[in-house]
Amino acid sequence: MRQLLEGMSAKVSRLLMLLIMLFVGVATYQPLHASTDYEDVIEAEESLVDTALPADQTEEFSNALAQLASASFSKKEDLTSELVAKRFPGSRGVLVALLENQLYADKSSGKVLILSEQDGEKTYHDAISGELIADGGSDKKRITTNNSLRKKLRGDIAIFDLHSEDRNVRLGAVQQLRDVVDQSVATMLMKQQSIEKDDDVIEEIRVTLAIFDLGSEDSEARLAAVEALDGELGNDVFNQISALLHSEEDKEVIKAAQATIKRIEGKRDFYSLLETAFFGLSFGSVLVLAAIGLAITFGVMGVINMAHGELIMLGAYTTFVMQQLLPDHIGLSIILSIPAAFLVSGLVGIGIERGVVRFLYGRPLETLLATFGVSLILQQLVRTIFSPLNRSVQTPEMMSGLLRFNEVFAVTYNRLYILIFTFIVFAGLWLILNKTSLGLKVRAVSQNRQMARAMGVRTARVDALTFGLGSGVAGIAGVALSQLTNVGPNLGQAYIIDSFMVVVFGGVGNLWGTLVGGMTLGVATKFLEPHVGAVVAKIIMLVFIILFIQRRKQGLFPQKGRAASGA
Amino acid sequence: MSMLKPLRDFTERDRVFDMVNPALRSPKLDVSHGTVLYLEDISVSFDGFRALNDLTLYIQAGELRCIIGPNGAGKTTMMDVITGKTRPDTGSAFFGQTIDLLRLSEPDIAQAGIGRKFQSPTVFEQHTVFENLELSMAGPRGVWAMLYARLNAEQREKIDSVLELTGLQDLRFALAGSLSHGQKQWLEIGMLLMQEPALLLVDEPVAGMTPQETERTAELLVSLAGERSVVVVEHDMEFVRSIARTVTVLHEGSVLAEGSMDQVQSNPKVVEVYLGEQV
Amino acid sequence: MTLQDHSAISRVMRSDRGIKWFVGLLLAAAVLLPLGHLLFPPESSLHVSTYTLGLVGKYMTYALLAVSIDLIWGYCGILSLGHTAFFALGGYAMGMYLMRQIGTRGVYGDPLLPDFMVFLNWDSLPWYWHGFDMFWFAAVMVVLAPGLLALVFGWFAFQSRVVGVYFSIITQALTFALLLAFFRNEMGFGGNNGLTDFKELLGFDLQASSTRVGLYVTSALALLAGVLVCRWIVASRFGRIIAAIRDSESRTRFIGYRVEHYKLWLFCFSAMLAGIAGALYVPQVGIINPGEFAPINSIEAVVWVAVGGRGTLYGAVVGAILVNYAKSYFTMAWPEAWLYALGVLFVLVTLFLPKGVLGLLQRFKRAES
Asked: For chain C, what are the domain ranges?
């Protein structure tokens, strides 16, 4: 056993390292998010509060604030408008705090306070002077808001942000202002447009102004606005133009608006097609990951391993255990899980091969039954050790969130990474099978066992290693799956039939077949789903494969030559 | 390709349409022209490798023909084509005047009267010798008929006579799997006899047999010829010489030479590709 | 071994000695258990409760399913990992009849529509539910539905010569597809919950102990008939041909047998047998739901056959009863351990008992003599 281990680690470890490095590279790449987080802005603003104000302004400011504490919601809207119009240096901080439910009024002292929370510790500052008030006074009460006020507040804050140094803040501000745009805002935007340097912000302002112009009295202006909005994908643009079509009377504008809507719809359809294709590829990558280990044990060795799904499950549980061990380093634990899962599942696989499968070579049906027994034992083992309930595996920050290409097309990072990861695993396996001596021996044994033995290949060892490799890859698949689904004792069962279907569909003994087969099935399923629903799509795919196998027993990529027909 | 087949039938005006050809529906062997097997321009390729290359071969009714050739000459592939296991890419294969072998499945061809003995003996190992012969017996092959099928006295006699002929009468209730290699060869020949075929294809019948057994096999095959047609593929030159009247040499998928053993052996081409290696 | 002895019964009886024992035991079980139930008062230690009767009756239907699997696997080498699909189809056909018998006694009291359809706001009976109010129609469907599915599926599979493991895997996919389909409410078979709350069968109250006795005896007799018919089949020349196909399919073809026809016939017959087993199962357990289609059930049924010893028919019966008795015992006494036990059983039987329990007994016998 030790020899086996060493043999395997020597040959596989170099590739594994490559895999890990690539994965780390991908995982740590952090694209720029368009940050509109108020938190950042608050911190920036807090330092500004300290600057001293002229006395008359301070009084005006504190008057307005004092009224804010007890005003009705509509009065609050007027007061916030005043804060904006007068542009007190502390205005923005107050507006943000109000929006974030962090503005308090202390009745006893008459002061208005801003709450800030750090590491669970609450501190209060005077909204005007910025001085620290330790407990925030005894009689403080939160100043409340409602939906309409909050909407207005966002616009108000955006007006301040429009002049921010940070282009991302400015971009966010324009987007906020789109909902509340009126003549005064439009004037402000036009002013900003003339001095703005950043192209994205200019574009955003252009669209916002065009939306504003849709409501213009002048039909020429409306026409120009409709034309200006041609090709914009956002929901707001679409809704505004659709609304315009209902109220519009000018024929020219109607015609232009209809054409624009049509073009927007065309573009949206294209992107939704792209999105479906991505979902399909993503689902396909899951299928390929689940099936690729099987492509080795079943495809190359001809062994039916019904416990394959449970080896995937073990990989997922390995991820769970790694996270329990490293609770503060979720990202690192995922990366470490990859080799760990490979080892765990690989060793269990070798155990299955040495303990059960090797006695049954040449008896595929018995192998199927025996390994099914193993799968039951593994499932129950997991139930005993971890409980029958699902365990949740956390997603590291680098893998959560969306990669947004435009307003209607975005992909989730975890799916994207898993797609890339699938290709890496595939490439790695391909290299192992085609460029290493282990791969050479595996292929030799699978083609002619007797001859390989005569040439001095230790076939028993190669069998064990091949089985271990296939099983280890199943473990790696488990790591990836833990990021998409619940980790539970039934995880493996959900994938075993799909995996067999992919391998058989792609052509047994052919890695490329598995890749193409899995991706094809994935994409086809996702394109069917919107029309017939998920369950029926699945049934259709199963029936399709059943019929396909019966037409072409050898799958998409049959093994060629005289030998294959005899096998 | 297969979809084009009906279309091609309409364009080949020298042939009778399938639908009006009664022979296809109930094949009856017709050897009125004296030829039992016609193979014409048969080509088979496996993934670029040409196993048969425009092979043309005729077997006369009642003839005993030996086919020799180096490994890879296409002997086994030829038998596969005749028995329906492999479909040729081009060419035609007729059994008698009327039976188009390329349109029939393996069981149909067997029932039409072509029996085959394989290179390595394949018998039903879990069945007794008697049962092996019973299953091979000529007669109906339908599912329902077999549920109610019973042996009559005549059929038992037939099996007994074949048991005697093959020297297996004492082993009639032995499992075929427990027989020696030579006995399995005999059993397979016996199964072939039970089928009462008009054409026997025999692939290496004497491999693994003792000299005495080989001699008996030679006698048996010679005695069968005349009543039936026999095609023997064999590597054992002595054996071929002892039974053959006509020998065909295959090389690289087509006929290299044909004639008596002496003629063939003196053919310089044959000497070069085949016998040259042997001598 | 005389030539004049031609009757079908003699053919079956002659085929081996064990069959007499088997027939005797099964008849005894069919008679004695109900007697124990009817003659002895509940306090008596000889009393057989309705629960026990129901349990043994259930085992009998499982045994019939196992026999149907053994017929194709043990004798023809066709390993179907989707045979409970046929079992479940037979069960659903029976369940639909029982459902229609509920009539106005349902929760919603609709004279025509079963409760779940009322619940789904359906206003008329789907076309495929018509006729199931008649027992003879349901009885025909019990064999016809599985038979037709087997015919279509088998025709495709055998015609294109899908064999061995490939066949096993696509049968598993078949039953998985059916599982998903029957889970859907739109299919009109009660979705997730399946068909249940049955009231009566042919006018007999399903709760009445006399009905339970009747069902038990019917199951035992059906099992007996099933085994005898299968024995008759495998003892015929047809039986020797399918065994020949198992051992060398291409050889069988070359001596003139249309292998596909034989396999298809056998597969359809086996499916119908499984359908009958399912139909007897449903009234005894009182429910049929899509869970019966789960691939694991099929594989478990294959293990019953392996445990008993395949290729013997009564091995399948012995295996089904042994394993299910163990299952009943474990799930009551020690539920967590059952899957371990089953898993270990799979491995041990395939590794050490290729001929099952019966093979082991034979080996002991030989060792003694």
From this structure: 12-296
